[in-house]
Amino acid sequence: MRFRRRTASGRRPVEPSVLPLRELFSESLAGMLQRPGRSALTALGTVLGVGTFVAILGLTATTSSQIDSRFDLLTATEVTVEDTSVQQNAFAGPVFPADADERVGRLGGVEHAGVYWTVHPAGSATVRSSPVGADSGGEEIGIVAASPGALLAADPHLAQGRLYDTYLSRSAQPVAVIGSGIAARLGITTLETYPAVFVGDQPFTVVGIIDDTRRKADFLLSVIVPRTTAERVWGPPKGGDARMLIATRVGAAGQIAHEAPTALRPDHPEYLKAVPPPDPRTLRGTVTGDLNQLFLLLAAICLVIGAVGIANTTLVAVLERTGEIGLRRALGARGRHITAQFLAESGALGALGGLVGTSLGGLTVVIVAFVRDWTPVVHPLTIAAAPVIGLLTGLLAGLYPALRASRIQPAEALRR
What we know:
The chain has 14 helices and 12 strands. It is of the alpha+beta class. Strands 1, 2, 3, 4, 5, 6, 7, 8, 9, 10, 11 and 12 form a 12-stranded mixed beta sheet that branches. Helix 2 packs antiparallel against helix 13 (380-406). The chain is elongated.
């Protein structure tokens, strides 16, 4: 603290004391270094708060980019064509032609396409793995008729065997593909013995077992048989039951949804309704907005906890340094100088905590992304704003203790 006084001749007033910025920062640094352990613990609250803030926003941005890619690869490349002929003509009959897969497959941008529907066998629909009577037990399992293109469009992962192909489908062979869970329930562990499943009294040789699928997860819980075989055994689907699943290239789904009904039924395209994928930007915005709101709330809670820690520690420091404050006031320090000193200390601790927290938060995002094999994404504004948030947190937390310190009277402080 420096005092600048004019000469006393002529009773000229004493010039008020001043506290230059350089001395303010040096005094604040001395106050922090006087108790380094306490200063470190005080800054720890801001480190945790700002670090959580950066990590949460970074992880949110990173997961949002993964959601983007997932939408692009799956949701944005799937088109479903529904049979709405019942609403147009009750006597329309089967809407999807026998060569539906080939018709849609010729459209530009189509990777795989096929017709499927859920079969409702007359009588017992119990599925068994042994040739016994229908009343001797079994599993109630769904039966799905699907063309080879529908299976490929679902993009399944084979655990054993293979998928039935166009030849088996055209010749209406009694073959089936089942999910690994269904196989376990029926006691089928290997395909080397050419096991069969029985739907009622109708046998189907199991040619493949799938354990995952990117689309149509309900296929994993069903016995999937060729479309032609299902038509031979149980008849064609009823109006409105059949659907077509189309897997497209990225960006082609909208055009395919527009062209598919005409390609399938040029005479009555109104019998079919193509359902394009939802706008990924809308879904992405909704999911990202929900994540941001939730995680920003958590980050704000962490910052409040850090601010309370700084305020508590600064207030304790004010009480412990009452004698020092009284001495400074007796030597000419003004109330605003004391306020500025403690605000500078709390602000410096907050800024330091913000810098360290920003580094730790960014490192957390990189580590999580590396472990999950993601691409880390952190907005530059988040990195730039985090230290400022730490500084503001420290200033706000130290405001009340600093104001309280400025109101301490010198005589009272020196008596303690």
